[in-house]
Amino acid sequence: MMGADWRRRTAGRALWASAALLLLAPSAPRAQAADAMVLHDSDGLVVRGHFQAGVNAVAEQNLFWNMSKALAPTTRFDADKEWLELYAKPGISFYKQGGGGTTLYGMVSGVASATVGTDAFDTGDTGRVTLEEGFIGVHTRSAGGLTFDLSVGPREYSAGTGMLISNGGSSGFDRGALKLGPHRAWEMAMLGKVGYGKFTGTGFYVDANEQSGGDSGTKIAGVDLRYDGQAGTFAGMSVGQVLQSGSPYPKAAPNGIGAPSILPGARDGLKFVSLYGRAYPFSGAFENAFIAGDLAIERNNDIDLKAWAGRIQVGYTFASAPWSPTLSYAYQTFSGDDPSTSRLERFDPLYYEGSPSSWSTGSKSAMVFINSNVNSHQLTLRTQPTPRDTLTLRYAHISANELRSPIQFGQATRVEIVDGVVNPIAGVTRAHLSDDVFLEYNRALNRNTYLTAGFSVSVPGAGVDSVVNNDAPIWTGGFVNVVVNF
Question: What is the third-level CATH fold of 4-24+41-485?
Answer without folding.
Answer: Porin (2.40.160)
